[in-house]
Amino acid sequence: MITVSHLSKEFVSAGRNVRALDDVSLSVADAEIHGIVGQSGAGKSTLVRCLTLLETPSSGTVTIDGADVAGLSGAELQNARRSIGLVFQHANLFDARTALDNVAYPLEIAGVKRAERRARAAELLELVGLKGTESAYPAQLSGGQKQRVGIARALAADPKVLLCDEPTSALDPNSTAEVLQLIRDVRDRLGLTVLVITHEMSVVKTLCDSVSLLQSGTIVETGSVENVVAANGQLTRQLVPLPALALTPLRAGETALDILAVGEAVDRPFVAEASRIVGSDVAVLAGSIETLAGGRVSRLRVALPAGADVAAVKSTLVSQGAQVSDPVVSEVAA
């Protein structure tokens, strides 16, 4: 549904060229929920503007539903924009319009007749769980309700893609959980492709099927959540962190190993197997289990006793489906 190929964007700032996006490529399948994560300054805002055609890329292509939209203009550009529904960090509702009229606004701009657009808006408010709030003004709604109205408005023009820019960062935990569940429910019911821009790993854990890590304008990791975690890179440490307070300093001669398991491998007795190989109990320094994209992932940090055959332990555990690496001993938490 969405394919970004070799996308770059340069700006001129203080007389010099600044490359905000550098050869970005990613692919999002039909009805998939894909997360774009990265810290401030990583290029997320610029990527959003290029994907929504508010910025013209310096080079590269943005293809939505088989059509290259990056170079469009005029009426073709307006039509392409209607295929993308936008959900913002703040709902950005019109204070002087009711919930119904806020949802109907995109249809009003598109020239849809009043009766038809009001019927569509009422239908969408019911879809997002706000039946009965049609006459309420934004000041009468909670933060979570405002975001639901924002989602309904994004769906008004029957888009193929829903792009959510930090959709929950302004909400309390309960409202966050409700909005994330709503986004997944909307995807399931309407078959939309969803792109979520976020800096919150909890959003990726709860919502996303796949994820990309953006750093300094470049995609450095991308793939399904399960495959990205199994790669044991930066996103693994952020999505499946080890509890800092549980980490124990190594004693003289001990060697620490990190053991990562995904899916069915989570249930395998890796610690018992390591203990069998070294001939004594292996201490567990820290552990964490997460459910990501419907599957389980575990990380363990263990200490092998002095004199243990580290190579034999690593080789055996890898053959049984684990990812095994040497941690940085000086780390407090990874």
UniProtKB/TrEMBL annotation:
Kindly list the organism's lineage: Bacteria, Bacillati, Actinomycetota, Actinomycetes, Micrococcales
| Complexes and interactors | Homodimer. Forms a membrane-associated complex with FtsX.
Identify the Pfam families for this entry.
Answer: ABC_tran, NIL
Recall the GO molecular function terms of this protein's record.
ATP binding; ATP hydrolysis activity
GO process annotations (BP): amino acid transport
Record keywords: Amino-acid transport, ATP-binding, Cell membrane, Membrane, Nucleotide-binding, Translocase, Transport
What PROSITE patterns does the record point to?
ABC_TRANSPORTER_1, ABC_TRANSPORTER_2
* Protein name, entry field: Methionine ABC transporter ATP-binding protein
Name the InterPro entries for this protein.
AAA+_ATPase, ABC_transporter-like_ATP-bd, ABC_transporter-like_CS, ACT-like_dom_sf, MetN_ABC_transporter-like, NIL_domain, P-loop_NTPase
Q: What does this protein do?
A: Part of the ABC transporter FtsEX involved in cellular division. Has ATPase activity.
All copies of the ABC transporter domain together span 2-241
The question of whether Phosphoprotein is a record keyword is answered with no
Similarity annotation: Belongs to the ABC transporter superfamily.
Q: Does the keyword Membrane apply?
A: yes
Q: Which organism is it from?
A: Galactobacter valiniphilus
Instruction: List GO terms (cellular component aspect).
Output: plasma membrane
